[in-house]
Amino acid sequence: MSLLYISQTCPGRCEELTPVVQCAIFGSGPWDERTCLNNVNGMQERGELYIGPVDDHGDLESLIVGDTRLCTFIDDDDCRASFVYGYDKGRTVVTAQVKKDCPSRWAGA
Hints:
Layout: E1 4-6, H1 11-26, H2 33-45, E2 49-54, H3 57-62, E3 69-74, E4 80-88, E5 91-97, H4 103-106
Parallel strand pairs: 2-5
Antiparallel strand pairs: 1-3, 3-4, 4-5
Helix pairs in contact: 1-2
């Protein structure tokens, strides 16, 4: 699997969180279903992670305040997906855009 990460702020953390977003939001990525459930559920049960969706990219951009960071990646289908992450009381808070931008949509732009 080859992914392209686009982040000017903290590429290491974006890379760490991308498989979490891929499996929890899109049902894709490098992890099989069992690994996805174990990893994401484990992090949530330990209070380390909250992950949620947002429908519109504008809504996602409105969440970029303070130390919140925007991450964008291109997946194996050449689709672009974005999410933001930040921290709240020691927990990583991730909000991901549920609609990916795919090449078929780019052609009309």
